[in-house]
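Action item from last meeting closed. Structure (205 res):
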């Protein structure tokens, strides 16, 4: 069999080594970015920074496959993000309030809340505003940090939520867990040493 015969038997679109040639994806366009943004926001609650980062990753990947410079599309990404904000599809205040409430239900401390929201690209000012709104809407006699500490210990089965007979042996370990979660030592100790029906007192006591 000659080289000419081999070439004639090669499938259309195949590379010299016999593998099918992979066509590059279509170019990045404003329409593509709009579709990508909508697809992402339909599936996830996101901050402005999260949407921007998602679009940047998509553009980076497509440009890499096309052999293009991703930086050329920076303005198009910003324009897409701006339209999403203008249309109310993404809103940092709404995102922060929703994420803060969800994290509080899981027992997140104020310190952990700030760190987690900052990791999502939420500004320090936005976090402070959301936490202030949380305090304003809470009942006057509710200590939000104490409630969160109790919820965290219950979820992790620490202190009074441990199996009977194992609590004292794990006391130091449980206190360390509360500290790592961002709760002050005094509050962590009160939660870990409390009876299930006991009311958490002043964490500074």
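Sequence:
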């Amino acid at each position: 069999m000659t080289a000419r015969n081999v070439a004639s038997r090669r499938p259309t679109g195949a590379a010299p080594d016999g593998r099918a040639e992979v066509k590059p994806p279509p170019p990045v366009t404003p329409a593509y970015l709009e579709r990508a943004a909508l697809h992402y926001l339909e599936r996830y609650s996101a901050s402005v920074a999260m949407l921007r980062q998602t679009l940047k990753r998509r553009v980076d990947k497509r440009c890499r496959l096309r052999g293009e410079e991703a930086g050329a599309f920076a303005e198009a990404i910003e324009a897409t993000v701006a339209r999403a904000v203008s249309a109310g599809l993404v809103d940092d205040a709404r995102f922060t309030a929703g994420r803060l409430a969800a994290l509080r239900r899981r027992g997140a401390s104020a310190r952990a809340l700030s760190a987690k929201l900052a990791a999502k690209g939420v500004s320090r000012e936005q976090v402070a505003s959301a936490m202030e709104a949380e305090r304003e809407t809470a009942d006057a006699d509710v200590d939000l940090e104490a409630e969160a500490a109790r919820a965290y210990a219950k979820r992790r089965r620490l202190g009074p939520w441990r199996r009977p007979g194992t609590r004292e042996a794990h006391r130091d370990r449980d206190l360390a867990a509360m500290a790592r979660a961002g709760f002050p030592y005094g509050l962590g100790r009160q939660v870990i040493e409390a009876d299930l029906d006991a009311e958490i007192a002043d964490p500074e006591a």
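Note appended to the action item: Residues 1-8, 199-205 have pLDDT under 50 and may be disordered.
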